[in-house]
Amino acid sequence: MKQEIAIRTESLTKRYGEKLAVDHLDLTVAEGEMLALLGVNGAGKTTTIRMLSGLSVPTEGTAWILGKEVKKEKDAVKRLVGISPQDTAVADNLTVEENLKFMAGICLGEKTRIRDRVEEVLKSFHLEEVRTKRAKTLSGGWKRKLSIAMAIIGEPKVLFLDEPTLGLDVLARRELWREIEALKSRMTIILTTHYMEEAQALADRIAIMIDGRLEEIGTLAQLEEKTGKQGLEEVFVYVAEQAGNQNGSVKRG
Ligand code: ATP
């Protein structure tokens, strides 16, 4: 079976004044693939995700989501993607169910479909026990789960998860991994994370961004072979240090 391309970028660039946040990024992600995007603080991961989901306009270059061009076909792209941002899009004063209904209303429109889909997602994300709780009373783990549930309620083909387990305890993180794992194959996913074990456990391929540039991309085995290092943390440190040696120190933040 021919594998379709879900995400493609060509020289995708974002400049904030003097700062090149994303520097001529060329990237291809296959349909159904999960790609982990790694990089130190300020490497350009969030900016990349924001451009790919139509929330930020590229300064230069182009990106396509399932063949739709992000700059020219913004509405079509927005229908294809879901995003769980770092600062979750959850409304604190609404209950879990109300948050899901609100998002379903935006994405789906048709009333009966909204009701059914909210029930479906409450069940599949094991959110039923907190359905009537206001979001502000949820623990960090439940809130992230709700944020991801909201991102997939419109049945996106491409999902962006920006640091989905940031700050969670180890059990909450493992639980969220299971939810993310269950989404795999059903959609194409780009996940940003600072947790190497998370990328290693979940992703099919790993991309390493340093100072806005894509330094390396491949499976863990490919990256290990290329760098001669064992384990993702060693690979990551090696790639970051090599890039730092070539370009002066790696700037953070
Ligand atoms: P983190 O891991 O901390 O989330 P990141 O890899 O997601 O970092 P970005 O948030 O994409 O990095 O930021 C890339 C660079 O662009 C940083 O230097 C940041 O300060 C800068 N930047 C991001 N958004 C803006 C903005 N709206 N205005 C000016 N500079 C920005």
Quick description:
The chain has 253 residues and is of the alpha/beta class. The protein contains nine helices and ten strands.
Structural descriptors:
alpha/beta; binds adenosine-5'-triphosphate; Rossmann fold; four-stranded antiparallel sheet; 39% helix; 253 residues; 9 helices; six-stranded mixed sheet; 10 strands
SSE map:
Layout: E1 5-16, E2 19-30, E3 34-38, H1 45-52, E4 60-65, E5 68-69, H2 74-80, E6 81-84, H3 96-108, H4 111-124, H5 140-152, E7 158-162, H6 170-183, E8 188-192, H7 196-202, E9 205-210, E10 213-218, H8 220-227, H9 232-246
Parallel strand pairs: 3-8, 3-9, 6-7, 7-8
Antiparallel strand pairs: 1-2, 1-4, 4-5, 9-10
Bound molecules: adenosine-5'-triphosphate (ATP).
Describe this structure in words.
The structure is a single chain. The chain has 253 residues and is α/β, with parallel strands linked by helices. It has one domain (5-247): Rossmann fold (3-Layer(aba) Sandwich), CATH 3.40.50. The protein has helices at 45-52, 74-80, 96-108, 111-124, 140-152, 170-183, 196-202, 220-227, 232-246, and strands spanning 5-16, 19-30, 34-38, 60-65, 68-69, 81-84, 158-162, 188-192, 205-210, 213-218. Strand 4 and strand 5 form a beta hairpin. The model has no long low-confidence stretch (mean pLDDT 91). Bound molecules: adenosine-5'-triphosphate. The site of adenosine-5'-triphosphate has 11 residues, from strand 2 and helix 1.
